[in-house]
Each structure stands twice: as structure tokens, then as C-alpha cells.
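ugh ok fine here u go
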Amino acid sequence: MNGRGMRRLVLVALMAAPGSLVAQEGSVTSRLTARGLPAELAQQVQRIASDVAAQGVPAGPLADKAIEGWAKHVPAERIVSAVRQFAGRMAEAGAALRGAGLQNPPGSVVASAAEAMGGGLKADEIRSVVRAAGTVEEASPALSVAASLAAQGITSRQAVTIVVSAMQRRRPMSQLLDLPSVARSLHDQGMSPGEIGDRLLPHHGDDGPGGERHGDKNDRPPGVPPGPDHPAAPVHP
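structure:
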């Protein structure tokens, strides 16, 4: 990303993260009890949120994690442990995002980065995805796609390269979001994770200088389904 693009990314992040951490912190207990969580559990989650607030960790995703566990009938002690671990990953994710130029990243992006790190992505890989994103809004789904590809057995570095390449080639977000389902389809055809990763990467010679592809503006990464106005090309294993 060039300097102008990075400045835009930082500006949007600052606008999207209005100093609401205190308000979020104060609302954790009431929010959790309103969703049916016991008061003691809600207070434990509140304490965790308060402990990590100084590190810039937003409380909202921690509350979401607790609500998710409660909805799945996870025991309270396991919910507390999961929230504490997630808080630690969010602190690491926040540091990685700040290293990518986001000084006040929105909670949704921090949570996506934390989930991605939990799926095996490293801090430098998180930074690579964020820097390739055109806006803060694109960073969150891009991180989720990279984590989903890694969860299917593709190495984290290859998964990140696939996602970064797609964004650098200005692929529509709909195509980026399709990549995990494309990977599953190729797996069902008998491809190994390494073969799938190679298939989803741009072929040598496809790109011109700076990652721009020459040719049809509707060209897609190998294996990505076409839009409704373009017939499907056969995918050969």
C-alpha cells in the first residue's frame, strides 16, 4: 500500500473507533446478564475486560465470546478460560495491527485478527493482510478468509499470499469471500492442501508490473466461480 493509501486506512480507523472503550467496558455486565448469563459469570468477564482495557482491547468481542459459549451450553469456568485466552490474543492482535499503521483499530478488526492468530497466522502475516486491504472494512473479512484457508490445511503463509494477491489485483470482495468454498471444492476433487494453495495463487506470467493483470478485467483467480454473466470454465484437477 502506498503512503496515501495507508493514511486513508489510518484515518478511517480513527473515525470508526470513537473513544467508546469505557462505554463498552461499563456495559459488559448488563449486556451479559440481559442475555441470560449468571451475574457472577458476567462479572468475571467484566474483570477480564477491565484488565486488558489499558492495552486497547475492546470489550465488545469479549462479551460476544462469552455469549457464544453460553449459547452452546459451555460450562462457566470454560467460558472464563476461553475469554481470558481470547483477550490475550486480542492484545497481540492489536499490537500487530498497530504495527501495520492502525493506531486505534476497530473492535471488529481486532477480533478478526485475534481469531486469525488463533488459527495459526503470525503477527507479520496479519500485518501483510491489513496493509494490502484498501480500507479498514476490507481488513476484517480478508483476515477471516486467510484464517479459513489456513484451517483447510493450506499453510498460513500461502493462505496470506493468496489473499494479499487477490486484493492487490483488486478482486471484488465477493470473489475474495468465495475462496474458502473454492478451496473446499478443490479438496473434494481430490487435491491436497498444497495443490489447492498453488491453484489459487496467480500463475507465473499472469501479472504485469506491480501485480496488475493484463487482459480481461473480469479475469478470476484459478478455480473462482464466475459471476452470473460469465459462463463457468471447467476446473481440471
